[in-house]
Amino acid sequence: MKTFLDYWVQVATDLLAQALAGEPQLNESLPKPFTSGSFGFTATISGDLEGRFTILLDGAILDAPLLGEGADQKEGWAEVLKETCNAAAGEMLSQSGTRCRVEKFEENASESKVTRAFELRSGDRAWAILVREDMHALPAADSAAKPAAPAAGVPATRLSPGLELLLDVELEASLRFGSREMPLGEILDLGPGDVVQLDRHVSDPVDLVVGDKIVARGEVVLVNGNFGLRVTEVAAPQRRLESIRCLF
User: Fold this and answer.
1) Domain 161-247 is classified in which CATH homologous superfamily?
2) For the whole model, what pTM was predicted?
3) Distance (Å, whole) CA 77 – CA 66
4) pLDDT in tens, 125-172
């Protein structure tokens, strides 16, 4: 059975090549000693799996502008590696049905034991990456003993027979990352390369919109190479039903 680490390797191999300058390649290798200034991050995982997943990097990697010239390399690595963990959780759910999520992602450079070692290579330069997986699956009895509870503030709702007839109707859902009001003149002046700043921070949840209604919010993840949404909050059932009024 594939572990969280297996899914992380699968995701990181593609994501790091896409997100970093020079399209570096991630390959498994023998453990190598770090230079001074090594750093790392630990993801606290919960769900069907619980535990910690730690990624340590050779400090020399901060001297390479893999995340762009002038960027805060350490902060950038935190964002990229957090995304690899979120994407690994998405792949695990998609391929095996195992549900897990990243509860916390924090800096940690004190891990002494490693599970697997890798090398990130770009041209004639290479940097060591060490990974430690310390997680376990919850016993089946635990999950069976805890019936799924409705989201906070959302009462359980039983659909009427009439509404049940609509459950197979396909609706178009879209993700909204943010919005901004702009004068018509600015819109007409837009050209290739222009950047439009939205009213939402990169760490804020995105909206899942059906019709003109927000039916859920969550985090953007990668699933089989495509963008996906890990839902963190949902609207009340009545509000979700209101989203289809304009379609009938």
Assistant:
1) SpoA-like (2.30.330.10)
2) 0.59
3) 9
4) 999 999 999 998 877 544 444 444 444 444 444 555 555 555 667 778
